[in-house]
């Protein structure tokens, strides 16, 4: 059979060339991040995943990339468009979804909580050292018995006691919490039942974080079960502009959009692993890439990826215009994670039995997709956020 020229965009999962939307300086920064990911993150991704290790040793190199935080956090940071920020997240997950989550918990959830809900003094106190990775952050919302129902009542409580607050309860699935210097804890104020945010600093008496064992996804992220037993937090560490779950939702709107980008990247990583395998694997005397059914699976995967890219690129434009709302972010998270889940399954199918081995790449993306599909709001919960927006009726309970 005749061979034809390979489309470079298709080979990299960028069939419609969305990266061409960046200006030259942004493209240079994205290329620099991509080189770091390929050279420093990719080589040990499988081994870290199997060992359940987080790449803490790369923090100084991440800092030097100048991609943590925003110009408002530290004026030494070069301004970035939402498109560039999204594409950076996509590139991270394209190489290692665990790395993307480790970065996102710190720079998105933890820093985002302080940026959105902190006073000016709190932002000045915490954000610059977090930009420099001198202090690492975590975000504690989900609980053992409260996941999707967080907006209706957290079991973790906060009680005012003089100039301090006393926190009691448990949190689960909290990424980075086993080593974080600053953990944002969301708790229900017993005085008025409103959700408030608190920054618990490392070493606080009564705070323990135990790493969850037996995970089959995002094993390169240290998720923790946190116990808060009479943890005292000074009033100065209560996030000044976090007075209800609506304030928590402001943070989640941004990070749900980030998960949509990560899901797109995870799908690309799986697609690239499947494509590379198909070009090398031979059956019946020729590469399986020349078989119709394999090409059909690859084309379906690329179509899913391209559809997701179209949605998240438009989402970034709306964000730039300050027009992105909760339902639009929820729709992107719902759609992109669903298409990702479908795509990684097709990638595993292309590899046959080898699809369950880490050495071929697709297995890690296949497993990690399950976590991205669930966190930052399940598909069902995000669909109900969209449903409320398009009908005017809430169907949550």
Automatic annotation (TrEMBL):
<dbReference type="InterPro" id="IPR009100">
    <property type="entry name" value="AcylCoA_DH/oxidase_NM_dom_sf"/>
</dbReference>
<feature type="domain" description="Acyl-CoA dehydrogenase/oxidase N-terminal">
    <location>
        <begin position="24"/>
        <end position="132"/>
    </location>
</feature>
<dbReference type="Pfam" id="PF02770">
    <property type="entry name" value="Acyl-CoA_dh_M"/>
</dbReference>
<dbReference type="InterPro" id="IPR046373">
    <property type="entry name" value="Acyl-CoA_Oxase/DH_mid-dom_sf"/>
</dbReference>
<protein>
    <submittedName>
        <fullName>Acyl-CoA dehydrogenase family protein</fullName>
    </submittedName>
</protein>
<dbReference type="InterPro" id="IPR006091">
    <property type="entry name" value="Acyl-CoA_Oxase/DH_mid-dom"/>
</dbReference>
<dbReference type="Pfam" id="PF02771">
    <property type="entry name" value="Acyl-CoA_dh_N"/>
</dbReference>
<comment type="similarity">
    <text>Belongs to the acyl-CoA dehydrogenase family.</text>
</comment>
<dbReference type="InterPro" id="IPR037069">
    <property type="entry name" value="AcylCoA_DH/ox_N_sf"/>
</dbReference>
<dbReference type="InterPro" id="IPR009075">
    <property type="entry name" value="AcylCo_DH/oxidase_C"/>
</dbReference>
<keyword id="KW-0274">FAD</keyword>
<dbReference type="InterPro" id="IPR013786">
    <property type="entry name" value="AcylCoA_DH/ox_N"/>
</dbReference>
<keyword id="KW-0285">Flavoprotein</keyword>
<dbReference type="InterPro" id="IPR006089">
    <property type="entry name" value="Acyl-CoA_DH_CS"/>
</dbReference>
<keyword id="KW-0560">Oxidoreductase</keyword>
<dbReference type="Pfam" id="PF00441">
    <property type="entry name" value="Acyl-CoA_dh_1"/>
</dbReference>
<dbReference type="InterPro" id="IPR045008">
    <property type="entry name" value="ACX4-like"/>
</dbReference>
<feature type="domain" description="Acyl-CoA dehydrogenase/oxidase C-terminal">
    <location>
        <begin position="249"/>
        <end position="390"/>
    </location>
</feature>
<feature type="domain" description="Acyl-CoA oxidase/dehydrogenase middle">
    <location>
        <begin position="138"/>
        <end position="231"/>
    </location>
</feature>
<dbReference type="InterPro" id="IPR036250">
    <property type="entry name" value="AcylCo_DH-like_C"/>
</dbReference>
């Amino acid at each position: 059979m005749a061979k034809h020229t390979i489309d470079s965009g298709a080979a990299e999962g960028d069939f419609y060339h969305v990266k061409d939307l960046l200006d030259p300086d942004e493209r240079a920064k994205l290329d620099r991040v991509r080189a770091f990911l390929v050279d420093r993150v990719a080589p040990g991704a499988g081994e870290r995943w199997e060992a359940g290790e987080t790449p803490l040793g790369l923090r100084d190199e991440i800092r030097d990339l100048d991609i943590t935080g925003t110009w408002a956090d530290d004026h030494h940071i070069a301004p970035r468009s939402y498109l560039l920020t999204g594409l950076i997240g996509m590139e991270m997950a394209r190489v290692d979804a665990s790395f993307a989550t480790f970065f996102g918990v710190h720079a998105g959830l933890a820093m985002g909580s302080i940026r959105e809900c902190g006073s000016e003094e709190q932002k000045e106190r915490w954000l610059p050292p977090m930009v420099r990775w001198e202090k690492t952050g975590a975000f504690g919302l989900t609980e053992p018995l409260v996941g999707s129902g967080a907006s209706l009542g957290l079991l973790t409580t906060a009680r005012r006691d003089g100039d301090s607050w006393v926190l009691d309860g448990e949190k689960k699935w909290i990424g980075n919490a086993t080593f974080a210097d600053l953990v944002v804890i969301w708790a229900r104020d017993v005085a008025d039942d409103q959700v408030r945010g608190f920054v618990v600093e490392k070493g606080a008496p009564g705070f323990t974080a135990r790493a969850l064992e037996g995970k089959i996804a995002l094993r390169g992220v240290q998720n923790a079960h946190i116990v808060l037993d009479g943890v005292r937090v000074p009033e100065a560490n209560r996030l000044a502009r976090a007075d209800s779950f609506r304030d928590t939702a402001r943070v989640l709107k941004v990070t749900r959009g980030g998960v949509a980008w990560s899901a797109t990247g995870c799908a690309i990583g799986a697609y690239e692993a499947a494509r590379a395998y198909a070009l090398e694997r031979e059956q019946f005397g020729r590469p399986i890439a020349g078989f119709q059914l394999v090409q059909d699976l690859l084309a379906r995967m690329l179509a899913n990826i391209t559809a997701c890219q179209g949605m998240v690129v438009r989402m970034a434009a709306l964000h730039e215009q300050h027009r992105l709302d909760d339902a639009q972010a929820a729709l992107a998270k719902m759609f992109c994670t669903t298409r990702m889940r479908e795509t990684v399954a097709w990638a595993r199918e292309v590899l046959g039995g080898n699809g369950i081995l880490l050495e071929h790449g697709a297995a890690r993306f296949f497993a990690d997709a399950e976590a991205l599909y669930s966190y930052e709001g399940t598909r069902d919960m995000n669909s109900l956020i969209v449903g409320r927006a398009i009908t005017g009726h809430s169907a949550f309970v």
